[in-house]
Structure formats: structure tokens, C-alpha cells
Amino acid sequence: MANKNTYALISGGSSGIGYEIAKDLAARGYNLILISRNEKNLKNCSASLINEYGISADYIACDLSNKDSVSMIYKACQEKNYTIEVLVNNAGYGINTPFHITSIEDEESFIRVLGTSVISLTKIFLNDMIEKKRGKIMIVSSVAAFAPPSAIQVLYGPIKTFMNRFSDALNKNYNRYGITSTSVCPGFTVTNFHTASNVQDLMDKVPSFMKFSAERIAKEGVEAMLKGKSLCIPTKTYKSIVFLLKIIPYSLVRRLESFFAPGRYK
Ligand SMILES: NC(=O)c1ccc[n+]([C@@H]2O[C@H](COP(=O)([O-])OP(=O)(O)OC[C@H]3O[C@@H](n4cnc5c(N)ncnc54)[C@H](OP(=O)(O)O)[C@@H]3O)[C@@H](O)[C@H]2O)c1
User: Fold this and answer.
1) How far is the CA of 103 from the centre of ligand 1 (A)?
2) What are phi and psi of 179, to 5 degrees?
3) Ranges of H-type helices in the chain
4) pLDDT at 1 (0 to 100)
5) Nearest CA to ligand 1 atom 2
6) Ligand 1: does its nearest atom lie under 6 Å from the Cβ of 153?
7) Rounded to 10 degrees, what is the CA torsion of 31, 33, 38, 40?
8) Does residue 14 have its Cβ closer than 6 Å to ligand 1?
9) Best probe residue, ligand 1, of 14, 15, 188 (max atoms within 8 Å of C-beta)
10) Partner residues linked to 189 by β-bridges
11) Contact 69, 47 (CB under 8 A)
12) Which of 165, 183, 9, 28 is nearest to 87 (CA)?
């Protein structure tokens, strides 16, 4: 349960996993600030969270691919005297155009949303957390961080791997200040992600036992974050898959991948 001016800030909090994290935290009494680009969605989500859970919820519409967005978010929080006790770095999307065809500007925006903005948001709120000697950080990463390289979305897996290492390094350096970072690595999750990333046709071919609801992912992720765990791979299915990926020969992984994630590795 949060104090009056204490908030959880959630990037990408207006849809999918981020919105389910918002609902889960609201049910636990946390006040919320949601970040994404679409102001109308943010307004609707905030209103329904206030209505349903009786918490305070605010939103900041901005594009995290814009390098000024993070300082703008921080300034808005300071002006309203919001203390950020929980930071959920969740916003993300995929690029479904071959790497040799996309523009470098598109790749840089992608790196900024999934990588640089996560680092900047964490950096800008970290000093306040250190001062208060408490803070919870979540980075919504992906099972892609452990999976073989994909034939689509060349940079997606590498960025998620980077984010896992970044989260580990935060724990190493800031646990002593009462701050923990949890890397949450979902597998295929039913959200708007695949439509937004133009890969819904590939998602439709994924076996149903490998698809989970955003609500389930959020619940396991929030529980892990509140317990201060460093890594959360939601669901037994994906815990087992990641375990197997670490122990079975790579040649076998390459043979199985086209069955479990058709099109992803062609
Ligand atoms: N779905 C999966 O299968 C899956 C699996 C593993 C990991 N993940 C990760 O889970 C996270 C959440 O994805 P999701 O599945 O919940 O997708 P989603 O339903 O499409 O939600 C993505 C959220 O990010 C926001 N967003 C996207 N680009 C943004 C930008 N440039 N600036 C600010 N906000 C932006 C979106 O809002 P606006 O469009 O309004 O900006 C939306 O609120 C991502 O980091 C993704 O990599 C997803």
C-alpha cells in the first residue's frame, strides 16, 4: 500500500502487460502514473483504474523514442510532487522489416524505446530512491533474451539480453540502498504487441500451450518484483523452456525452433 504522494510509474501502461501490471498494483493500493503515446488510451485507462480501485492515477503522454521524453517525465513528476517508489520499464514493440532494409533512424528509435529510455528513466529516478533507501524497479524483458537469434527482429533479442544484464548490474550496485531490480521475461503473451509489430500472422501459428494472458504474466511479474527477485520467467512452461535452452545441444534447438515459433527462424 502506497503513501498519498507515492506512485508506481509504468511505461507502456495503457495496453497489454503494462496495463495488467497497472491493475495488479492498483489492487494492492498503489497510485499510478501511466506513460505511452496515445493520450486517449491513457485517459481511459487512468479513469477506469481510479474508478475500479479508488487509487490516484495520472498519465503523461509522450514518445519514448524522443530523447527529451525522460527529462519531461521527471519534470512533470517533480511539479506534481510525485515520489516514484516503483518504476516499471515495460514499453516496447517489434520491427518486422529485415534489418538490411530498415532505416538506421528506425533502429535508433527502437533502441531508444527498448533500451536507452529504460536506462535514462532508471538513472533519473534512482537518486531519489537512494535518498529514500527504498525502490522497486521492473524491466519487462523477454524469453527472447535466452532464445536463439531470430530471423526477424534482429535487434530484439540482443536488447532484451542487454536489459537482463543491466538489471543484474543494478542489483549488484544498489541492493545495499534497499533498491531491487527485477527482470521479467515473458514468452508469447496475448496482447496488441504482435499486431503493432506486424507479426500477428506468426503469433497465430504459435501452439496455444505456449501463449499466456497478459494478466498471468503481470501477476507473476509483480509478485517477483515485490519480493525483490532479480529474475522472473513467468509460467512453468517458459521456466522449463529456458532451462532446456541452457542444457540441450544447439543443433537440437535449431531443429525444434521452427515447430515452436514458426516463421521466426526461417
Ligand atoms: N506480447 C509478447 O508476446 C511479449 C513477449 C515478451 C516480452 N514482451 C515485452 O512486453 C512489453 C510490453 O509489450 P505488450 O506485449 O504488452 O505490448 P502492447 O500491448 O503493444 O503494449 C505496448 C505498450 O508500449 C507503449 N509504447 C509503444 N511504443 C512506445 C513509445 N515509442 N513511447 C511510449 N510508449 C510506447 C504502447 O502504447 P502506445 O502505442 O500508445 O505508445 C503500449 O502501452 C514489451 O517490452 C515487449 O517487448 C512482450
Assistant:
1) 21
2) -110, 130
3) 16-27, 39-53, 69-79, 104-111, 117-132, 156-174, 193-196, 200-205, 214-227, 236-247, 250-260
4) 54
5) 189
6) no
7) 40
8) yes
9) 15
10) 212
11) no
12) 9
pLDDT at 197 over 70: yes
CA of 249 to the centre of ligand 1 (A): 32
pLDDT of residue 254: 74
Cα 249 vs. chain centroid, distance in angstroms?
Answer: 30
Q: For atom 37 of ligand 1, which residue has the closest CA? A: 36
CA atoms in the 13 A half-sphere facing the CB of 34: 33
89: left (phi over 0), alpha (psi -120 to 50) or beta: beta
Q: Are 157 and 180 in contact (CB under 8 A)?
A: no
Torsion of CA 32, 58, 164, 167, to 10 degrees: -70
Residue 150 Cα to ligand 1 middle (Å)? 19
Cell of 106: 528506425
Radius of gyration of the chain (CA): 18
* Nearest-5° Cα angle at 66, 9 to 174: 45
Sheet holding 31-36, edge to edge: 57-61, 31-36, 6-11, 83-89, 135-140, 179-184, 231-232
Q: What is the pLDDT of residues 109-165, one digit of tens each?
A: 999 999 999 999 999 999 999 999 999 999 999 999 998 887 668 999 999 999 999
User: Amino acid identity of 56?
Assistant: S
Question: Which residue type sits at 76?
Answer: A
Cβ neighbours of residue 27 under 8 Å, at least 6 residues apart? 53
Average pLDDT, the chain: 93
